[in-house]
Amino acid sequence: WRWKQAGGRFDYLAERPGDGPVARALDTLRRFHQARGEMSTSKLVERFVRDRRLRELACSGAARRERWRRIELVIEQTRALARAGHPSLREFLEWARERAERRTRMPEGGLEREADAVRMMTIHQAKGLEFPMVLLAGLNVRQPHAPGSVIYGRSPGDIGVRLGPFQTDAWEGLAAEEREAERQEDVRLLYVGCTRARDHLIVSRYDRAGAGGESLAARLGVHAQGVGDLWREAKPLEVRGPATTGGRTQPAGDAVSKREWLAARTRAIEHAARPGAVSASSLQGRVAPELPAAKEEYEGREAEPWRRGRAATATGRAVHAALQEADLATAEGLDGVAERCARAEAIRDGAREVLELARAALAAGVVRRAAGAVAEGRWSDREVYVSADLDGAGVLEGIIDLAFEEPSGDLVLVDFKTDSVGADRPLEEAAAPYVPQLGAYAAAVRRATGRDVSEAWIVFARRIAGGLDGEYRVPDIAAAAAQARGLALEALRGA
Question: Which of 33, 164, 229, 312, by CA, is between 20 and 30 Å from 120?
Answer without folding.
Answer: 229
